[in-house]
Design goal:
This protein is an alpha/beta fold. The chain has five helices and seven strands; from the N terminus they run ααβαβαββαβββ. The chain has a seven-stranded mixed β-sheet.
Length: 169
C-alpha cells in the first residue's frame, strides 16, 4: 500500500514537472541552471547597488535569487513551474536566505516595484518581455540578462561570461 502511494505521488510529481517543462518550452523559457561563473558575475554587478529591489524572472531552482538574498538583497523569484517553486523555497530555507518566491507567469506580474531584473531566458521570450520591462520598471532600473540579448536594445554594458546589462530610461 505504501509503495503504491509513493509510486502514485512520484508519478504525479513527474507529470506536473513534465507538463510545466513542456509548457515552458512552448512559451520559450525552459529551465536551465545558470553557471557558477554567471552567478558570480551577476552578484559582482549588483553588489554596489544600494537599496536594490531585485526580481529574478524564470527563477528555475532559485540559484541566482538565493545567492543574492544571502548577500542581504531584497529579492523575489518568479517561477511558473510549481515543482521548481517548491524546490526554490526549500533551497532558500536550507540556505537561510530571506527570499520571496512567487509561483506565476512573470509576463502577467507587475514589475514596477523592482529596480533590478535578472533573467536567463531565450531570445523569443526576451523579445516578449522587453516592452513590459521598459514600460513597468522605474527609470534608472537595471536589466541583467544571462547570455541572451534584447534584440531591439543595445546593452549598457557587457561582462564576461556573457552578462548583458540594460538601463531603463
Amino acid at each position: 500500500m505504501i509503495l503504491m502511494i509513493f509510486s502514485t505521488g512520484a508519478f504525479l510529481l513527474l507529470f506536473i514537472f513534465g507538463f510545466y517543462w513542456v509548457y515552458a518550452i512552448i512559451k520559450g523559457a525552459p529551465y536551465y541552471p545558470s553557471s557558477t561563473a554567471a552567478v558570480r558575475a551577476i552578484i559582482d554587478v549588483i553588489s554596489s547597488q544600494k537599496n536594490a529591489k531585485i526580481v529574478e524572472l524564470g527563477a528555475g531552482d532559485g540559484k541566482i535569487a538565493i545567492a543574492l538574498a544571502k548577500k542581504g538583497f531584497a529579492v523575489s523569484a518568479i517561477e511558473l513551474n510549481p515543482i521548481l517553486t517548491v524546490i526554490t523555497r526549500l533551497k532558500a530555507k536550507l540556505a537561510g536566505a530571506d527570499l520571496k518566491v512567487i509561483n506565476a507567469d512573470f509576463l502577467r506580474c507587475d514589475l514596477s516595484e523592482y529596480n533590478i531584473a535578472v533573467a536567463y531566458l531565450y531570445p523569443g521570450i526576451m523579445q516578449k518581455l522587453e516592452p513590459k520591462l521598459f514600460k513597468e520598471m522605474p527609470k534608472g532600473s537595471m536589466i541583467i540578462s544571462n547570455t541572451f540579448s534584447i534584440k531591439s536594445r543595445e546593452p549598457y554594458k557587457k561582462i564576461e561570461p556573457k552578462i548583458l546589462i540594460y538601463k531603463v530610461g
